[in-house]
Amino acid sequence: MRTVVTGSMQETIALGRSIGATLKPGEVVALFGELGSGKTQFVRGICDAIGVRTPVTSPTFTLINEYPAPFGIVAHIDLYRITSPSELRDIGLESYFHERCLCLIEWADRASGLLPPVHHEVRFQHGATETERIISVGNDTEDPR
Q1: Residue 140 banded pLDDT, cuts 50, 70, 90
Q2: Which residues are 74's β-sheet partners?
Q3: Which of 9, 26, 78, 102 reaches 20 to 30 Å from 64, CA-CA?
Q4: Contact between 143 and 118 (Cβ < 8 Å)
Q5: From CA 138, how far away is CA 109, in angstroms rounded?
Q6: In the chain, how many domains are there?
Q7: d(CA 35, CA 58)
Q8: Which domain holds residue 121?
Q9: What's the pLDDT band for 66 if we cut at 50, 70, 90?
Q10: Whether the model pTM is above 0.85
Q11: 46 forms bridges with which residues in the sheet?
């Protein structure tokens, strides 16, 4: 994993843009981290890089936001309120794992066992200051994209 320290929300968005430029339809990005650690800001950057023109908002209460993209859709999924595997089945998580969808999953630890074998992981931590974030990026094959 590659670790980057960002000092502002704009830097976290910019990191998302740079990672987003390398992503392809059909990929899954699993995001891990506490509340307010920068996950949604990072997703905003990814969406900007791949051509999403709809405002990106946190899907905490809707669970899933779908954004039109040039290749199909971006599924921005927030599992914070999920408490059981049956709820994951009920929202149809696995139906988003296909070649015309880029799937971005916040609180991905709640989907343990359901994520595709090959996926990217991004881990967020609060830093030493209010705006600093420590972000580690990689995947199960340690591709540092």
Answers
A1: low
A2: 67, 102
A3: 9
A4: no
A5: 15
A6: 1
A7: 11
A8: 2-139
A9: very high
A10: yes
A11: none
